[in-house]
Amino acid sequence: MTRAHQAPPSSGAALELLVHGVGGTTPHEMLGDPRITRVTGDTTAAVYRRTEDVGAEDHPERHRDGPVPEAYCWSNLTSGNGSRALWLLLLPFMVVNLAHWMRPTARSRGTAVRLYGVLVRLIALSLTVLLTAAACEVALDLVAWQCAGAAECAGRRSWLGFLSPGQGGWWSQPGRRLALAALVPAALVGLLWYLSNRTWSAYESQRPLELEEPDDAPAPAGAPEPDGAPADRPALGRPGFWYGRRLVARLRAAHTAAGFLTVATAVGGAAARYDRSAGSPASASLGLLLEGALVACGAVVVGVVCRRGRSERRLDNRIDRAVTSFLPPAALLLLLLACGYAAWSRPGWNSSGALPGEAVFGVLVLGQGLLVVVLAAVAWSLYRRTPEPRTTLRGLGGPAVAMLACALGGVMTGGVAQRVADWLDGPATPGMGGPSLVEGPPVLLSWQASVIPVLLVLLLAPVTWLVARTARRARRLGPEVEAEYAPAHPDPARTRRIARIRATAVLTDSAPRIVGLVSGATLFLGAGAVVGSWYSGQVPGLALDDAGPFTESLAEAAQATGSWLIGVGFILFVTWGRRAYRDVSARRTIGILWDVGTFWPRAAHPFAPPCYAERAVPDLSSRMCAWTGSTRGRLVISGHSQGSVLAAAAVWQLPAAARHQVALLTYGSPIERLYGRWFPAYFGPGPLQGLHRSVHCWRNLWRATDPIGGPVRIDEGGRPEVDRGPLKDPLVYGRTVGHPLPEPVLGHSDYQADPVFAVERAALLDRLGPVLPRQTAGEAQGSSGKSSG
């Protein structure tokens, strides 16, 4: 008889790996002990234990009352100093990147799936061009062309004096002023490239551990067969899902080149138009050659963006050197040639009016609208093939969010251009027909600002309806609350507060309707703004002066209000973003939206904020695989809020042998309520049911007072239910002997304070079952000798 059979079965070591949610939770708070030790990791993300629990695997008998707690702290991946609030300026890029992951469920990666990805990447490319064009509008048109070209405006700005034609200096010619001003948008493009490359190196460049299962690894008793090829796994379980180095490098090169080409077109195009009008054959020929080279390079950029998407079936560490090494330098070379061409002496060239940027912004807005419409058609086609009732907006969530990204980009760029024009013009108002120092930004930007108050008025009705519905629901919930607690002395104020919190928590489920309404209204109002600007050629107040004084006053008020809202909103946006990174309470309020956005890899836009999950998920899966492989112990990965999504994603990455030694405990989890509805291809019913079947056991706790977490809605015959809830919140209604002080309504926080948490965690450990202690090599040889003897 072997030595292993002589020893009685042992539960072995048990570990609870805690993963926090949004809010910058510290490991001291997670472990409830001021004395902690970092087990593995670095200052960015690490695993911690209480100091007394270090080396607990060597003495499992000391922890028979419960598992050893271990905390994975990833808060430094998404929070830090206030300078990270500048990432919020990249919000349109992050939002369009979200649209890529909102694709409806598809049975296979067919033409429609690939077309969906191509369309989102093209919309993302248009946002880069839009941002660069806005920088060109400010630096080249408003400053170098309009203000520096007007003696009165340049005279009021001492730092523009050397550019003024009145000075007669070398830089006074329009082409040379444009070439000098091109440094600003070119520097912006270079900064975006630098930030994308730097954040990749800091957050996402760590190659995941290749968790391959050895052929002779014994499978746990009763475990199903291991997963098939990587192509057959759920998307989040594929080896290359959390390592998109190749695609990000390609997109970074293409978007950087697109930015440089946009600046080159603005500089060289102005000079080429003058040469054609001046009748200079040699210069005009050079201009045509330059424009042809710009068009050819632009076509290559579009081809690079369209040609290749994500490769997830394997860990792809290759880099397309032909793209990354030559495309941005080629575009930069064309920019230098355009600046040199524009700086060539043209004594008769004078700047007047504004640069012809109206057509550029109009084409961009129309192109974005058409791409969104085609994307909606593709998404609707995918949804009809595999309909899932809880999918957001019947599969149109991705196009709606892509439309919001375009709207955000338009509002931000238009707001900056209008604010700079107002600053340069002093007390006057550019474009309003009165005396002014500068012509102002393109008319389309003024029309876009004018539709913002109209959009807010349209939102007033549904918001009012939501408020009224919430109040009615709270009144209906009052009797249910008192029936649930059956208090001896009902307190109307206490009842109303609990009912109001439960009614308010349901508002999260109304977000898809609001997003759909805003996106649809934005599409139609944006189309109206393009038509109005092209048809009239004037700002709304002047374009509608023939419609009567009342209509004209409304148009002027809408334009002024929209312009003011853009400026104030931009300031508040940056202020709130900075506060969210520095203040824990503000981060818990705002952070869930930001963390949902930066959870996903950069698949559509390389200049989006970095994906923290490309570091966190491999960290968690590597830790679980290493611990279960070395101890053969039981492991419960316990995730709260956004941490539950990270935990589920990490479990998907585990080999089958390790996955069946792991139990999953989630609480306050948005995994179905938010992710399952908005990202059905990755967290829909199919993937979640597959996760339930593959993991050893899973329990999800939720409350009716939680505005973020909810049930996962998995009900499969023959397996225990996943959901446990709604949990009582508050635990007691009023004062009792056991709870002499009033109990708070916890909502989304402190799930571990509920007694049900410890009960369910112990049940998961029991369902994992006892394991035999691992034998050392010496013990195995001794046992083999005794058995043969």
Describe this structure in words.
The longest helix is centred in the middle third of the chain and has 43 residues, at 443-485. The chain has 789 residues and is of the alpha/beta class. α4 (111-147) packs antiparallel against α7 (183-204) and α12 runs antiparallel to α16. It has helices at residues 3-6, 27-31, 91-101, 111-147, 151-156, 174-181, 183-204, 245-278, 281-307, 321-324, 327-342, 358-385, 397-425, 443-485, 492-505, 511-536, 540-543, 549-582, 584-599, 613-631, 642-652, 656-659, 675-678, 680-683, 685-694, 755-768, 777-788; strands at residues 14-19, 36-41, 46-50, 68-73, 634-640, 662-667, 697-703, 723-727. β2 (36-41) and β3 form a beta hairpin. The protein has 3 domains: 3-78 and 612-782, Rossmann fold (3-Layer(aba) Sandwich); 89-205 and 238-414, no CATH class; 450-598, no CATH class. The chain starts with a helix and ends with a helix. The model is unreliable at 1-11, 212-231 and 771-789 (pLDDT under 50). The chain crosses the membrane at residues 85-103, 115-135, 178-195, 253-272, 284-305, 326-344, 359-383, 395-417, 445-468, 514-537, 557-577.
